């Protein structure tokens, strides 16, 4: 915290510590996990959007290819409603190989 006159200024970490507790507490760990999942879903949605655009497909055209409505493609590209099966269908429809890294178990190709 930084004191400037009568005002107290907190950085984001200090606010999180005060509201959710320090890193390592269950509430804070759940928050951090949730943020990480949201960021990864957003990045995956962006990758889907970029791949669709690079293939000159509209959301509607991609939706027809995988059997969903344009609104579902829009949600996926924003990082919502993403499941492994929808990712596999999208990448397969666009001819993009999809490989999952399973750590010590090796990799699995889905397309």
Describe it.
- The chain has one domain: 434 Repressor (Amino-terminal Domain) (Orthogonal Bundle).
- 58% of the residues lie in helices and 11% in strands.
- It has helices spanning 12-20, 26-54, 59-66, 70-77, 84-93; strands spanning 2-4, 7-9, 99-101, 107-109.
- The strands form 2 sheets. It has a two-stranded antiparallel ribbon with strand order 1-2. It has a two-stranded antiparallel sheet with strand order 3-4.
Q: How many E-type strands?
A: 4
Report the major sheet.
2 strands, antiparallel
Main CATH class: Mainly Alpha
- Strand pairing plus helix content: what structural class? mainly alpha
Helix content: 55-70%
CATH architecture classification: Orthogonal Bundle
- Give the spatial strand order of the biggest sheet: 1-2
Q: What's the domain count?
A: 1
Count of helical segments? 5
- Beta-strand residue fraction: 5-15%
CATH topology: 434 Repressor (Amino-terminal Domain)
Mean pLDDT across all amino acids = 88
């Amino acid at each position: 915290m930084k004191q400037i006159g009568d005002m107290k200024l907190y950085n984001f970490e200090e606010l999180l510590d005060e509201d959710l507790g320090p890193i390592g507490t269950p509430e804070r760990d759940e928050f951090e996990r949730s943020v990480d999942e949201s960021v990864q879903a957003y990045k995956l949605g962006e990758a889907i959007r970029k791949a669709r655009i690079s293939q000159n497909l509209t959301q509607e055209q991609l939706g027809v290819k995988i059997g969903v409505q344009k609104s579902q493609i829009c949600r996926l590209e924003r990082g919502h409603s993403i499941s492994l099966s929808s990712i596999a269908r999208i990448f397969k429809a666009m001819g993009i190989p999809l490989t999952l890294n399973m750590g010590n178990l090796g990799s699995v190709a889905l397309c």
